[in-house]
Request: fold
Amino acid sequence: MTPASIAVIGASRHPAKIGYAVLDNLVRGGFGGRIIPVNPQADELLGLPCARSLQEIEGGVDLALITVPAPAVDNAVQASIDAGVTGIIVVSAGFKETGSAGGALEEKIARLCAEARVRLLGPKSLGVINTRHRMNASFARHMPSTGGISVLTESGAVGTAILDWAAARRLGLAKVIAIGNKADLTEIDFLDHFARDEETKVVIGYLESISSGDEFIRAAEALAAVKPVVIFRAATTQAGGQAAARHTGFKPGADVAYAAAFKRAGVVRAETFEALIDYGTALAMQPLPWGDRVAVITNGGGPGVVTADALEQVGMRLASFSAETSAALKAGLPPQAAAGNPIDLLGDADPGRYARAVELAQQDDAVDAIIAILTPHAMTQAAATARAVAQRAPVDKPMLMVLMGSVDVMPGRAEFVASGIPDYPSPERAVDALRAMREYAAWQARPPRVVTRFPVNRRRVERLLVRQQRTGGLEVGEVRAKEILRAYDFKVPEGLLTTESDLAVEAAEKLGYPVAMKIVSPDIIHKSDAGGVKLSLADAEQIRDFYDLLTLRVMRHAPEARLEGIYVEKMCKRGLEVTIGMRRDPKFGPMLMFGLGGIFVEVLEDVAAGLAPITAEEATQMLKSTRSYELLRGARGQAGVDISAISQGLQRISQLVTDFPQIAEMQINPFIVGPPGQDPMVVDARMMLTEAEA
Amino acid sequence: MTPASIAVIGASRHPAKIGYAVLDNLVRGGFGGRIIPVNPQADELLGLPCARSLQEIEGGVDLALITVPAPAVDNAVQASIDAGVTGIIVVSAGFKETGSAGGALEEKIARLCAEARVRLLGPKSLGVINTRHRMNASFARHMPSTGGISVLTESGAVGTAILDWAAARRLGLAKVIAIGNKADLTEIDFLDHFARDEETKVVIGYLESISSGDEFIRAAEALAAVKPVVIFRAATTQAGGQAAARHTGFKPGADVAYAAAFKRAGVVRAETFEALIDYGTALAMQPLPWGDRVAVITNGGGPGVVTADALEQVGMRLASFSAETSAALKAGLPPQAAAGNPIDLLGDADPGRYARAVELAQQDDAVDAIIAILTPHAMTQAAATARAVAQRAPVDKPMLMVLMGSVDVMPGRAEFVASGIPDYPSPERAVDALRAMREYAAWQARPPRVVTRFPVNRRRVERLLVRQQRTGGLEVGEVRAKEILRAYDFKVPEGLLTTESDLAVEAAEKLGYPVAMKIVSPDIIHKSDAGGVKLSLADAEQIRDFYDLLTLRVMRHAPEARLEGIYVEKMCKRGLEVTIGMRRDPKFGPMLMFGLGGIFVEVLEDVAAGLAPITAEEATQMLKSTRSYELLRGARGQAGVDISAISQGLQRISQLVTDFPQIAEMQINPFIVGPPGQDPMVVDARMMLTEAEA
Reply:
């Protein structure tokens, strides 16, 4: 990040070449260290003496910037290593992204670097910019001014767009790092770096993938704990994820896992490219809001309405001013102005009127944040208003400006930026940015994470899983899955496995009527689909009849299936049917899920996800994040159910799948929950083990 | 819209006054007709001879622009009328928006105008701009250049923001009309005007309310039939709407009604202020897409990924190029470029490469629209690229540019705008605009609206409603509601009203077991909540037991309730429980609704709405717009249900509530639908009549 000397391998005199652009950027950026163009055919480039090769350079080189065509990169890397560099940036493209030959080349250069303990950025990296070091080691044209925002990007083009935007807004950046193909250094390394980097106040990132879920969460959480980090992830569709979704009735796509991981780690998620910039700017320039009560100041009624709508839509609200503020507003504004909230200063509002309103909102303890809107009227004085507002701008609560329009309001922008007040082109975008700040503030204020460890019979599950591995294959059927769950203190209806109808009657009489009967076969997982379940049997005659019927059905439906018997189970009390389960995400590991039971889960897409291990607080938040939560609390005369029982069920699953990584997937459906006091019941359950471990 | 002479009443020499701004705008705008400042204290203003009063003016005046303070407006209006004007614009504020005194003043001036048959715009109107007439009769600073976009706005501030934005983008406008408080002229008048106005090619509008739902739909549909109309409605919350929602388990808020009305009328709905401008620009500048297959051309991989994500999220897709296009792309691009879709031209893409890719996408019949993205690199030539692309830009399919960044890409903007190609600052916004174009194109290509009239027994419903009005009050209970529905050919389970247990047994035996029993009381509408329903009764003994039990329960639950008897009903076949119904929206009239049955409707917010009278096609679209549609089609091994039966149910309700406007609200819940061939059944139903008619 702070090399004393940089060699540009492949430096060129042709302005259309990357080797020229990179060298030119270094020179024009004002890099204070030594710049050595390396080109065997030139003596001098851009006024700098050229080296024909790295070996020629006296005193050695810290950083090598490689811009030669892909086939020549491995030689350039080897030469750089031989010359004793500590870091290499490969700007050249033509590697993994072009297919297997390129991939092999990429692996080769990564291996060379690893063996020599030289860190490699790229290939296909836009490069690195360190504004305080005056180093633009990239092929992006702009050297941004110094500031607190650092940029991490997997796409060079997104990086250049951010740079260009920052240049236009005169916004200062700290560091810009394009990680490219991530053959060695990845986003994790730089999240770690930014956490320690005092010049970085906020991190904004564009990612298409992450290298390791666990590492990402660790690094991102450590970073978010000390400064805000905003990430825009391009959410690629995954055919594999969809297939898994169809299987379990769980439709997260990998995107839900990312969302859960971001939430856990305190990463502010940007949904669009513009949001990335909008949120980053707000977080860099303004303090965090302590609450969700917003004062809106405007010189037009319409934009005030739009802001009020937007606030409600994101779950924030208009502040109710104190009596003093209301009185002072009424006294200080023209009679036609609306002194409520939004405060409508009218179209002829002058700078003084804005300043007064901002000041009053600032002083009112019932206000957590301020959004001020300037629309262009014939009398609008944008720059003067900006100066007046900036003078009164609060220091302990965030203030965001909305500049609606263009040439008539933009003269105010430079003044606002200079005063550290971010501006937005519409109310909706300012509100979204404020919401992002609020969520980050709430994450920062979260209670400490305490994962409850329940007393369980872990040894028993170990034995059951070993037995399953020996005899049953990867799919764990209902009976054994329930045994496992019982060892983790889930309540399961009493039941007995029977192998003939007389024994079934005996079992039913022991359990007490009514009972359910279910076929048990390692070859039939979806018992209901096979007609292998019968509920509410009331007497011995029914037991006998259905024993034969179920057996017959299995023979018809799946003649090759091995039938182990019929499970006779006590019917349990009624309640709300929900589903809880877990699926291992390829990146982030065990992901817990919750939804309503039955076919509704998959159709209504009302599923919440959370990463294991989970805390009680997080489990409750999962439930609250669904629309179904209203049902759990009791809606329209229906009694509510024991919400803590579901939360505890999720925590127990969390403990189980953390203890036993060989459980790849599991689902309890239905999990019947009644009113508080009634034990929740696992009515059906199944598991899938991983191939490796099983 | 084209006055020959305009009087400015309240014209002023003080630049901070609206009376100055309006006069100044008229003069600077280059108005060709006569401008007469009216001010009793001045001889001359801005170089124009001043009239002391309207009476002085020789030759009369066409349009009076009133800017005097509110208390003086009624006199100014009367004077204008006396002077023979045909139109009045009241710019002054201080009317309805300030309370009842202002409201009375507003009614007074509206009455004066109506009596004199003079049309009034405002009060609190920003004014009117007609670019081709060179008339800026407003207090907005800018006189936009001439063009095809007309603006209709209920908020002056939103209007000025649009004007300012148009000025910065050098986009031409036709007319700008700020309707203000709508004391006389409303949005309806101007929708009608724009439909006839040849200078207007696209209408963009900001509305907070509409004056009349029926009129709005008629005018908007007529306008949308000839040119696109985009409206951003500030969706204010309505406590009343919420209360109604709680009652029927139907949560539309008025917003759902607006959405349904916009959809019916072909109005493109903008969700945000920026979307209003984004969509309007695209529709004004580009042809409509014929399909949803999009070619994406980019000089950076990341923005291509973002575009692909965004397309999938809005339900559009990446085009699959023809073999010739693919071959030509491969041949014409550098080997590292991605010749698939998105086409990645690489960071060093020159204008020629862009032009070639655009040309190939244009020629390919498998492409319906093109999105091209320009990100800033050291080698990017924005203006030259813009010129090259504009030359090859297709004429018969839409092309939208994304200019990511700022100073490095903006030099291309002027060229694009000049060539009629709209530009967007992010892929997501270009994709949203394209989606809006696609939806409008689909609406334009919709089949003719044919509302089916089913043969029904209308006379019988008339008689039943009269009887209800005489005896039953406003709430129509289950038994009579079912009789009404049967007259409109709904299938209802056979049933008999009984008044003692022996008769109930007799009825059950006639109907055939199993049966349901339900209490009948005009005072108990929510029978289940009162414990007044018992299903699946299998023999005479059960009938006798539950007859007594239900009666007892009613006495306990609602001792004052009048019990008419117990309804014995044949149990109907199983199927999927859905809800269909109708609620009258205060603006748009009868709004049909569909959702899953039971408590899920309200909790899961998966409800579709549509305006009656509805066509078969529209009813089917309603069903398709819900997530539950997957359940109707048959999900996860469950058989699908007879979708046309639900659609027909909606159409029959549509006919019923159109025939009988006294039905204020009705709900069939559950409506049990089975597989095709099985008659759908009305298992429970209720209605509410309007007070006026009932």
